[in-house]
Structures are given as structure tokens and as C-alpha cells.
Amino acid sequence: MAAAAMPLAELERWLQARVDRHPAATSLPALDGYVAAIVAGPVSMGPLDWICPLLAIDADAFNHGDTPEFAAISAVALRHNEISQTLSTAPKQFAPMHRREANGDVDARPWCQGFYAAMRLRLPAWAPLLDASNVNHRLLRPILRHCRDDQGRPLLGPPPNSPDPHRNAYADIPAAVEALRQYWMPIRYPRAR
């Protein structure tokens, strides 16, 4: 019998307990960003190709429906479907799962790092938007502004004339995700001629 989808709070604890296995996400915001990139990105990927690194599981976990791994897979699949449905039918309602700091500020970094982790699975496919001279590079800026490379350096410098480049930058992320989805749609789902 297949396990029910793991509740999100339990999924976050489960991910944090797997840190030594190096899952692509160890928090719900990072998982949510990762899944959003899979939904809005340039290529369709089979579930094994993106869920296995996300959860740090073996492909065989898909074959055993009565395990915590399968319950985690089910939870991720549900979130994927929720994001896909929202972006398809009510994109203005898309809301990333961001954490709030003690002072009430939104911390978009984990979500954005999760998005970037999913991008890195197929980074060459994202290449056109990674080129700063491409006018459409702006679609990624609200996300990449919060990201750091493997050495901890910011991926992007601060925007010109911005005293605090991160303050309220998170507010642009939902529209950016929908714009990215629209940008990649003709490439990801070409129409038959």
C-alpha cells in the first residue's frame, strides 16, 4: 500500500535529518524554490531526474510505497502539481514559501537558493537568461539577487543606486516565476507544425 503524502512540517524535519546525505533542499522554502524552478524552467524533466537529488534518495525509493521516502516523494509531487496548477490557472496567486525573520522581514534566500539548485541540474538550458547582455536576463534577477555561489559569493552584484538591494526584492519573485514560465513555454512545449 502506498504511503500518504508526508505533511509539509514533517517533510521539513525529514529533510533536515538527511543533511549528511546532501539533499538539494533542507528546508521547505528551499524545496519550494526548487520545485518552482522545475515547473517554470526551460526543460521537462522526469521525476527521477529532479526528485532524487532534491531529497537525496535512490531511484529505487519510487518502487516502495510504504516508506518515509515514498511519502516524501508524494509530498513533493503534490507541491509540484499545486505550483503547476496555480501558474496555469491563477498565476497572480502564486506565493513562494518564504520564511520571516524575527523582525518580520522576509528572508527569500533559502527559496532562491532552492530555485538555483534546480537550475543547476540543467544549467546549459538556462544559459540564454544567464547572459547579462540578454534583455531577458532581468527575468532571473529577482531570484539570482538572493543567491550565492559555491564559495559563498553573491551571484549578482547589487543593482545600481540601491542602498539595500535585498529589502523588498522578494516581492518581485512571484511575477518573475510566471514570466519565466511564459518565456520558456514555447521552448518547453513546442507546437506541432
UniProtKB/TrEMBL annotation:
Q: Give the superkingdom in one word.
A: Bacteria
Enumerate the residue ranges of region (Disordered): 150-169
Q: What Pfam families does UniProt report for this protein, alphabetically?
A: UPF0149
Task: Fetch the NCBIfam families from UniProt.
Answer: ygfB_yecA (TIGR02292)
Q: What is this protein called?
A: UPF0149 family protein
